[in-house]
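From: lab user (bench 3)
To: helpdesk
Subject: output format question, protein + zinc ion

Hello, I'm new to running complex predictions and I'm not sure whether the block I got back is the full result or only part of it. Here's what I submitted:
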Amino acid sequence: MLEFFDTHAHLGEGVFEADRETVLERARAAGVINIAEIADAPAEWPGALALSRARPLQLRCALGLHPYYAREFSLALLDALAAKARLPEVAAVGEIGLDYVKTDAPKEIQVAAFRALLAGSLSWGKPAVIHCRGAYEDLRGVVGELCPHPPSEFRFWGVVHCFSGNADDALFLIQRGFALGVDGPVTYPKNDGLRAALREAGLERLVLETDSPYLPPQSSRGRRNEPAAIPEIAAKVAEVFGRSLEDVARETTANARALYRFPAAAPA
Ligand SMILES: [Zn+2]
Ligand SMILES: [Zn+2]
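Helpdesk reply: Thanks, we reran it on our side. This is the complete output you should expect:
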């Protein structure tokens, strides 16, 4: 059985309230043995912690402050996150980042919050889950400043999830120790530019994600997305690289485990 890792999902969202257990079961049945549950704001942190505590073998969580909420950033929030980031079930800090498309939070406020949160993730020894939309130039500025070199102790400082940059952005980020998250949009017919950028980055730098309930792959566009969609994304990645589905499952799952710094042995 192939083993996949969904490195980015929001199962705490209300749309999963009625059938969350079934969704998790379908994920397991599809070979998605691990899922990272992402909490975007302090109000979501307790739910993500509870979800990962209830299923320690299947789920870990990431706690962060999405750029949508950049105005809520404060030193008190940073302190609260520092305390939580040390918990073992917290695999990462995120999502954090920059979004110049979907929010009117001023760029200077977003950059200041992102810089402080990325610096926090580095000092707390946890990888960062970075969101970036329409802001790759400023992302490269902050990453170039705080992460000029790849880490020596780990493979990745973090991941730029739902990667949507060009080939130059991809190379810049992987050369500084970041993985790139690949999700539903890689399956959309018109996204040849994205597929070319990912090919440039190489399979050894990619992790799979669904961003559930958002960004469903081609076969379920317009519907709620869920972690069981990972094999469809993996199949497209296999096609893009001319590799087998087995290779893609093995490599991306190993990358994801390295990203979230799981122990070497697979969970029982
Ligand atoms: Zn995001
Ligand atoms: Zn997300």
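A quick orientation on your result: Residues 8, 10, 38, 95, 211 surround zinc ion (ligand 2) (CB under 6 Å). Let us know if anything else is unclear.
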